[in-house]
Structures are given as C-alpha cells and as structure tokens.
Amino acid sequence: MDVGAAIIGARARVVSALAARFRDLDLAEDAFSDAALTALAVWPADPPRDPAAWLWRASLRKALDATRRMATRTRAVFDDPAPEPTPEDIVMQSDTPIPDERLRLIFVCCHPALAPEARAALTLKVVCGLSTERLARAFLVAEPAMLQRITRAKRKIAGAGVSFEVPARAAWPERLGAVLATLEIAYAQAYEDAALAGDGADFAAEVLRLSGLLVELVPDDPEVLGLAALVRFAEARRAARLDRDGGMIPLSEQDVRAWDSGLIAQGARLLDRAAAYRRTGACQILAAIHGAHLSRRDSGVTPWPTIVRLYEALRVLRPGPVTAVNRAVALGMAQGVEAGLDALAAAPADGRLDRWLPWQAARAWLLEEAGRNEEARAAYDAALALDPAPAERLYFLRRREAISAPEG
Amino acid sequence: MLLIYEPHDAYTGDNGEALLMEIVGKHMALSQDLEQNGVLLGGDGLQGVETATTVATGEGGVQTLHDGPFAETREQLGGYYVVEVADLDQALAWARKVPVAVGGKVEVRPVMIY
Asked: Where does the record place the RNA polymerase sigma factor 70 region 4 type domain (chain A) (predicted)?
C-alpha cells in the first residue's frame, strides 16, 4: 500500500473529527501528525485494514493523552479536585465510524471573522495539511510571516469564540460565500504559482480536491458547483500555459491538444448541474467564461461575443477593475480594437491604472492587434517596468521584439 | 462586548435631532429584545468625546492627563452592550441589530475570563 497517499487521503476526515470533538485546531493537527508518524513506522510491516479508522483511533488516543497531560499540569498548579473520568475507554472500545465533520472544519477555517488571506492559508493548512513552508512559497511571503498569519488566525478562532458548528441554513448565503471566496483566493494562488515557480501542480491539486470535496459536502449549491467547474476548466489548461522556455502563452494562443479533456468534461458536467438551479452567480459566470474559451478546442474559434456578454453579466456582480479589463479585451476582439481601448480607458480604478500590470498588458495587446506598433511598444515597455513575473516578462519581451522587427 | 462607534458628526445635521430620537428608540427596543432573550449583562450610552479625559502612563509610571479621547478619530465610541452568548456567530447576529447612523460600526470583542 502507498502509506503516504493513505495518510493524506485520511487527513481531512480525521483532523475534522478531532477538531469538532476537542474544539482545538492545534490539538487536532498535532495529534494527527503524531499518529501519522506512528503509521509511517508501523504500517509497512503491518498494514491496517482501514487506514482512516486506524488513524482516527490512534490520533484520538494521542489527543486524549495530550488533554490529560494538560489537565494534570493545570492540577499541579491549582490543586483541583480529582478529574472526571475520561470517555476514552468507551470511545476506544467502540467501533463507531469516523464522524464526517469536514464541512464544519471548512466553515471554521473560512469564517468571515478571519482575514480572507488568512482563511485561504488556514484552510489549506488544516484541511489539506499543506506545510507552512509550502504555503509561504505559494503566497509569496516569508515562512515566519506565513506562520504568524496562521497562528494569528487560530488565536482569533479560539479567542473570539468562533463556533465549531455548521452554521444555520439561514446564514449559509454569507458563510458559504466566505468559503467560496477563500477557495477562489487559494486557487488564484495556485494558478499564479504555476507560472511563477513551475511547481504549482501539487498545490493546485489540493485546491482541485478541496473544491471537489465541497461539492460532495454541499451538493445542491450552484455556486459551489460553479467554483468546482471553474477550477477544473482552468486546471485543464495547465500544461498549455507555458512554452518550453517558461514564457507565458495567452489563452487564445494555447495549443488545444495540450488541454486535459478529462478535466474539461468534469467541469462541463458540474456547470450543467449548476445551471439546472437557475440561480446565476459569479463563480458560474467565471466558469462559463473559461468554458467559452475552451470551446475553441472543438470549433476552432474563440466565441468573443459570448465572452463579452458573460463579462457584462459578471460586471453587475463584480464591478471592479479586473472585470473591466477582461471585458475590454473581449470587447476589442469582438467589436474591434477601438471599442476595447475605449472600454479600457473607462475602467474603474483603485489607484492609477497605468501602474497596474493587467491593465497595461491588455492595452499593449489591443494596440498591437490594431497595428499601432509604436504605441504597443511603449505599452509593453510600461508593462515590463511594472516588474512582471518571469513567465509574463518573457512574453512581453517577445511581443515587443516581434513588433520591433522591421516591417514588410 | 459590542462597542458602538459612530461618525462624530452623525447627529449634527439638519435632521440630527430627529435621527437621534429614532436611533435612541431603536436602542430601547433592542435592550428589551436582549433582555427577553436573557443575554443582556449590561450596557450604556456614553457622553460625547468632548467630555473625555485620558490618563496616560509613561516611563517609570509617570502619569499625565490629556483633554480628550485617547485617539482622535472620525468614529467615536458612543456606547456599548455586554451580552452573554454561546459563540461569535450569535454575538455577530446581535451586533447586526445594534442601531447606528450611516457610517456607524459595531466592534465585537470577547470579554477576558479570569
């Protein structure tokens, strides 16, 4: 048996069950790590019939030991009367299956009382078991800073009294929204990561798994389905996103043969399921936009007018510079570059748009499409001055070179 | 603890007086609601920050008095409720019901248990 895979596979379930029982994330994580270490030592010679159940019993024992030690230490100081008997024996002897508390744990880690960035890191740490070091790399912060982010979030959960219950249905729109936003941030990080360091596949695989898990736990929410579809559609293109030298290949120029048809089919099924609820949301629209781009695989052309319409719908739900810039590009392709450039000029700004890389990159691309090489070159220069990631840098350099070549 | 912050000029406009009466009325309703649910431990409105005096303790325990609140901000602490509930979600549900003027904020903070 693959011991590592069995441990990773059981992790979310066991840690969630421990966290729900002890209401202590650190205790749950530590107890599971201890049990996993024992498993690594014992399983090769004596593989368990049910690895998850084995890990659940072993970590439960470790957690109970730890709480007993804590109680003993407290008694030594305060000289309390004898402790109540622990329920350990009853639990250890019974053959009860592991309770499935994964949704509870996800709701705890994604509580809106936590900062969005902290939620994403904490969820990936506690639910998926990613190391602080791995998270630091993915979120582009130093390891001590990541550790602090996670520690602070855990302290807030304990200190502010975040409940370990699944929230009442009435609170779901907001709470599930926070969960979806968390997964979106986590995936955005995984997506960036691929282009930046080239080792993002494992990270993205976790987000893929997590979004699938959420569908399993909340099968009847169209936005949950939409997000899972979105992640699958975007991941399907992973192999096609970089060229051999590590340069970025824009979506509309990617080789469709390198797209993963299995993930595309999964995404399409999820999005179909979502559509049946007739309750549109941002995740579904984003997934539909990805799906429209992917349809080039079969039709040979990108349906830009459809993509423009989808961005118009998205603009209602998510007005803001990101949507505006993407819509402008689609508009430029659907109705002519001038329309795109006009839309770009009218984009809402958080700060100065010309200092914002996606805006500058979109402008450069549209200008190049219009054959306005002089201006396009200047725009590529401006984009390069904004410190793009290596894959993007290489792409901008090449575009600039291509249009600098003597014409005719 | 639900700490209520509102913009310093929330009740100074033309409708200030009327708005204040409206908010005060809602506070009375909320107090009743809190009491009927058995979660109210206490609470008060505070007089304006122009009445505030701050005791500052510096190096070596030297204390000085300052006229005014400890921090000059647009939003000012105007009152508080102390409620006893099971978890943050319940506290937040009550915090949402605290009446405030536009721009008002309610900060939820657990009380230290000694």
From this structure: 106-157
Summarize the confidence of residues A63-92 as an average pLDDT: 64
The residue of A107, A157, A163, A166 whose CB has the most chain B CBs within 10 angstroms, and thus the best one to mutate to test that interface, is A163
Q: Do B87 and A171 count as a contact with CB atoms less than 8 A apart? A: no
pLDDT above 50 (res A82): no
Q: How confident is the model at residue A408 (pLDDT cuts 50, 70, 90)?
A: very low
pTM: 0.83
In Å, how far from its chain's centre is CA A286?
14
Structure confidence at residue A90 (pLDDT): 46
CB A127 within 8 A of CB A13: no
Dihedral angle computed from the Cα positions of residues A334, A340, A342 and A345, in that order, rounded to the nearest 10 degrees: 150
| Yes or no, beta carbons of B89 and A160 under 8 Å apart | no
* B92 near A CB under 8 A: yes
Q: How close B20 gets to chain A, by Cα (Å)?
A: 30
Pairwise pLDDT comparison (A193 vs B111), residue with the higher score: B111
CATH 1.10.3470 fits A99-161+173-193, yes or no: no
In chain A, which residues have their Cβ closer than 8 Å to the Cβ of B108? 160
Contact pairs from chain A to chain B, CB under 8 Å: 23
- Report the distance separating Cα B75 and Cα B104, nearest Å: 8
Domain ranges of chain A: 4-74, 99-161+173-193, 219-302
Which residue blocks in A87-221 are alpha helix, DSSP H?
88-93, 102-109, 116-126, 132-138, 143-160, 172-197, 201-217
Distance from CA of A80 to the nearest CA of B (A): 16
This complex has an ipTM of 0.79
Chain segment A316-326, per-residue pLDDT in tens: 999 989 999 99
Give the nearest chain B residue to A113 (CA atoms): B88
